[in-house]
Design a protein that fits this description.
By secondary structure, the chain is mainly alpha-helical. It has a single domain, classed as Orthogonal Bundle (Hydantoin permease), CATH 1.10.4160.10. The chain has 18 helices and 2 strands. Strands 1-2 form a two-stranded antiparallel sheet. Strand 1 and strand 2 form a beta hairpin. It is globular, with a radius of gyration of 23 Å.
């Protein structure tokens, strides 16, 4: 098996910029290249950096609310815990798969997609992933802004009328809600604008900080409730024995769908790792191990809210807001804001930054791409996409229906069709003899695969008779794409690509 071609040595390059770590060769086409999309000269991230990435990705308000929403399915706490852990092990497996081509080549997700969709056709998955990131950016910003809202009302109770959307509101959000949302929006943009190295430093400490606060919150709740008063079978509808299995499978699928976005474009981060072993170790500690702690905290804190506050609370910000200590409330709210800034930057700023830059490298820089996503997130009114468990699950199902096929095509092309061989230089050329140059720059096999692979899971979500399959939209789309692309790709390749595959040069 021949590994992916490594980026060229630094002394072979022109147009390099030391501050952006780019490797740009003279033959790279300007329509496909800028300093952000080019292969990296140095890959320096360690296992801890990957681990910290997942800590920031997991410990967000959205993560806790999504995990807490599984109780609404009628599962007991131990069933929720098992579902969370099985789901995250699946995520770890697929993250290792998608990380490898980007780590070996030092290129981001949209550039790797040029191998499967064609050097111009890669704009299709890039735009889809970028638009999904816009939605998630808005959702996470909105969820974090609730913490700001809680603080504002605690210190200034007279603002309560402005927190009522019926009295003072616009587009479904109150005036105070808008102020909180835009404050968080600005703070996130400020961190992002400082660059990738600053982002790495930010996520290195943001995740551990949230852990400390969540552990403190869990200890306080358990102490207040008394362990003997915490009931771990909280669901209003109890599923026992085998009847719980299909419900748990749906919960597992929801976990995968929740992480499907950062899982798809994980190559945007694995490209910075010094070797693939660092990625695998970081994924192990950051996903199953880290997620075990996250899951235990979620189950305990959610279960403890019932005896302490008299009702089940799945939103940790609301839980913090119920605490009769100003210091605890401020610390908790600030921590959740920091946590969500972390996940938004790593999952929903960096991804569209590369994705939108890939569409027009000469005109859209990495920073400009991220700001396009940030501005777009305001107009989708994200508070309407994540305001109750049913809407949460519907949102995840629809997003998963589009992300699954993109993942299936990428994995099928790299592992099954090309046998883990990538010619890095040809990802940046429009020469007709290039390994990834299809007619007009678009691979018809990928497009013909994408249409049914996305349409079928979408139908499962929107057609009432098929809604039993809705939670599995990601798996359905991914599976269809994986098989269909493997069948179509070899049959629709230009002759020069087929010859390259036979000789092992592509």
């Amino acid at each position: 098996m021949m590994p992916a071609s490594a980026p060229a040595a630094a002394d072979e390059l022109v147009g390099t910029h030391p501050h952006d770590n780019a490797l740009i060769k003279p033959g790279y086409h300007e329509r496909l290249t800028n300093e952000d999309l080019a292969p990296l000269r140095r890959q320096t991230w360690s296992s801890y950096n990957i681990f910290a990435f997942w800590m920031s990705d997991v410990h967000s308000v959205g993560g806790y609310i999504t995990a807490g929403s599984l109780f609404a399915l009628g599962l007991s706490s131990w069933q929720v815990l098992v579902s969370l852990l099985v789901g995250i092990v699946i995520v770890q497996f697929f993250c290792n798969l998608v990380a490898k081509p980007s780590q070996l080549t030092g290129t981001p997700y949209p550039v790797i997609c040029r191998a499967s969709f064609g050097v111009l056709g890669a704009n299709i998955p890039a735009v889809i992933r970028g638009l999904i990131a816009v939605a998630w950016y808005g959702i996470q910003t909105y969820l974090a802004s609730h913490a700001f809202l809680v603080l504002a009302l605690h210190f200034f109770p007279s603002l309560a009328p402005y927190a009522d959307v019926a009295q003072h509101g616009f587009a479904g959000l109150s005036t105070l809600g808008w102020a909180a949302f835009m404050t968080l929006w600005f703070l996130q943009a400020l961190v992002f604008w400082t660059g990738m190295e600053s982002i790495r430093r930010f996520i290195d400490w943001a995740g551990p900080a949230v852990y400390v606060v969540m552990i403190a919150l869990a200890i306080w709740l358990v102490n207040r409730a008394g362990w003997e008063n915490i009931n771990l079978t909280l669901a209003s509808i109890k599923y026992e024995g085998w009847e719980a299995v299909p419900v748990m499978l749906g919960a597992i699928a929801l976990v995968v769908s929740y992480f499907s976005g950062p899982m798809l474009n994980f190559g945007d981060f694995s490209r910075y790792a010094r070797d693939f072993g660092s990625v695998r170790r970081g994924n192990f500690w950051g996903l199953p191990i880290n997620f075990l702690g996250f899951s235990l905290l979620t189950v305990i804190t959610t279960a403890a809210t019932l005896p302490v506050f008299g009702r089940l609370i799945t939103d940790p910000v609301e839980t913090v807001g119920q605490i009769d200590s100003t210091f605890a409330m401020v610390l908790g709210a600030f921590t959740f804001m920091v946590a969500t800034i972390g996940i938004n930057i790593v999952a929903n700023f960096v991804s569209p930054a590369f994705d939108f830059s890939n569409v027009a490298p000469r005109h859209i820089s990495w920073r400009a791409g991220g700001m396009i996503a940030a501005v777009g997130s305001i107009f989708i009114t994200p508070w309407n996409l994540y305001n109750n468990p049913q809407v949460i699950h519907y949102t995840l199902d629809v997003l998963g229906a589009f992300i699954g096929p993109l993942f299936g095509i990428l994995i099928s092309d790299y592992y099954l069709v090309r046998r883990q061989r990538i010619v890095v230089d040809d990802l940046y050329t429009m020469d007709g003899r290039g390994t990834y140059w299809y007619r007009n720059g678009y691979n018809r096999a990928a497009i013909f695969t994408m249409i049914p692979a996305a349409a079928i899971p979408v139908l499962c979500v929107v057609v009432p008779a098929l809604q039993g399959l809705a939670n599995f939209s990601w798996f359905i789309g991914m599976g269809i794409a994986l098989v269909l692309y493997r069948i179509l790709a070899p049959r629709m390749m230009p002759a020069h690509m087929t010859a390259a595959l036979r000789t092992g040069t592509a």
